[in-house]
Amino acid sequence: MRLPEHLKKAPVGVERLSRDALSRHQRQRIIKAAIDVFAKRGFQNTSIDNIVAASEASVGGFYLLFDGKDDCFVHCYDSVTADIRAAVAEASSETSSWVARLTTAVITILRYAEEHPLPARLVLIEAQTAGPAGVERYSETMTGLSRALRGGRELTSRGDELPPRLEDASSAGAAWLLHQRLARGEAAGVVELLPEFLAILAGSYIGEAKARAHARRALSAKA
Amino acid sequence: MAEHPFPDPALDRLSAAGCFLDIFFAVWADFEAQVLEGFESGECWRQRVRLGAFAAAGWLRDHPSEARFVFLETLRAGGRLQAERERRLEKLVDLIDRGRPLMTDPRPHGREIAVAVVGGAIGLLVQELQKGESTARVESFVPEFMYMAVLPYLGEEAAREELSICIDNPRD
User: Fold this and answer.
1) Which residue out of B151, B153, B164 would a mutagenesis test of the A interface target, given it has the greatest number of A Cβ atoms within 10 Å?
2) Which of A23, A208, B87, B171 could form a disulfide with A203 if both were Cys (CB 3.0 to 4.6 A apart)?
3) Which residues contact B125 (CB under 8 A, 6 or more apart)?
4) Are B103 and B109 in contact (CB under 8 A)?
5) Based on the structure, what is the number of domains in chain A?
6) How many CB contacts within 8 angstroms connect chain A with chain B?
7) Minimal Cα–Cα distance from A153 to chain B, Å?
8) Per-domain residue ranges for chain B?
9) Do A163 and B82 touch (CB under 8 A)?
10) In which domain, by residue range, is A87 found?
11) What is the ipTM of this complex?
12) Mean predicted lDDT score pLDDT of chain A
């Protein structure tokens, strides 16, 4: 009697992975290690050798997947921001109003920074030192934040009279506040600054007292 | 032999990093002196911040290369310079934070608001420099900066008044 093809003996646990899957896996491994290396050593002080050593890859393997250090950094940046975006999207799926969405997004970002200070450091600190590609990515992130904040103008009857670059400044101010905490190694407890962050980001639209009250409610609800 | 905890500053200056740091200190001191002079010439906190901001904008307009150096090039420098840059920015934060006692209820406010005001202004300046824009434009942003600086401390009405301040006569 002949066994059907799928019941024939085959070595267990050594299924061949496709070349693409292997390459994806290897890329993820290098990115994961590189995030920590960039964040700990700083972009300028990181060499390909540092990344290769931390990821236990080979120099040849590295260059098969990345054009160089800048390209690797950009992949790291994209990986971290994709994680943050996914966390924000998941957390705010059930919220409806602009203020509630903003509150949820900010609390999620602060929590991320608290739990993952190294990736957060890569995005907020190292990107600005990482040459044109890193700066461009950082600018895109800030532009996205600024655009999202502009939705707050609809909450006030005098939205059109607000300074045109208000959102650029408030998003840059909030980013700087977090930047400082991360640079000083003080990411722990940063979630408690939610009232300050909301006052900075939403105070112009709903008033500072309301923004702080929203933050306090959100903190007690999530406690 | 144990490593000397305080490197010889003369030797440090011989390195490119040491030289970079020296130039940064000198340029920043010039910028800060102008800002402080503007700030101190005001009569109340709000006017002081405004005059300090115009003094900063004037310095940036007159020193485009130095502005690019201290606010942009230093971003790519090492940790020591970043720390020195941050320490100096703290002085500007102090000037903004002096508005806290003027609030009707200063209790909920921490220094963080002043940090964000200064960070926001620096962020905008860096964006301009990265786009290759002229530093002469910065003066026209002062009323917007003043709106953001005044709002948390003196409220919306005072902040809106800053948007209509005449650039040619900032004392009024």
Assistant:
1) B151
2) A208
3) B60, B67, B71, B138
4) yes
5) 1
6) 99
7) 14
8) 19-163
9) no
10) 77-222
11) 0.82
12) 91
